[in-house]
Amino acid sequence: MRQVRIAELKSKLSEYLRAVQRGESLTVLDRNTAIAHIVPAREQRGLRIRIPASGAPAPNKVPLPKAVNLKLDVLELLLEERQGHR
């Protein structure tokens, strides 16, 4: 990994970015202390859509769990939780 000081990086930024684009990695130094790494960006993979497994139900036919009938005040629980962190 190539090392470069901040002043040199600023003066030759385009040159160093082209090197990174070619696959090189850089360590940025501030008074001989490494403060950052500049690495090539990875290609972002697109969304992959898979075919459902054979025998799987259609998305609109998936059975939902039964609703739970609880006698709770959700707002009261939320306020209690939020005030507990203060």
Query: How far is it from the N-terminal to the C-terminal residue, by CA?
Result: 46 Å
Discrete helix count: 3
- Under the CATH scheme, the architecture of the domain at 2-38 is 3-Layer(aba) Sandwich
Spatial sequence of strands, sheet with the most strands: 1-2-3
What's the β-strand tally?
3
Average pLDDT taken over every residue: 90
Name the shape in a single word.
elongated
Assembly type of the chains comes to single chain
The name of the CATH topology of the domain at 2-38 is YefM-like fold
Order of helices and strands: EHHEEH
Class by alpha and beta content: alpha+beta
Report on the biggest sheet. 3 strands, mixed
In terms of DSSP E residues, the strand content is 15-25%
How would you describe the overall organization of this protein?
The protein is of the alpha+beta class and 86 residues long. It has a domain at 2-38: 3-Layer(aba) Sandwich (YefM-like fold). Helices cover 30% and strands 17% of the residues. The protein is built from 3 helices and 3 strands; from the N terminus they run βααββα. The chain has helices at 6-11, 13-21, 74-84; strands at 2-5, 26-30, 33-38. The chain has a 3-stranded mixed beta sheet. Strand 2 (26-30) and strand 3 form a beta hairpin. The radius of gyration is 27 Å and the shape is elongated. The mean pLDDT is 90.
The gist of it:
The chain has helices at 6-11, 13-21, 74-84, and strands spanning 2-5, 26-30, 33-38.
Features:
86 residues, alpha+beta, YefM-like fold, 3 strands, 17% strand, elongated
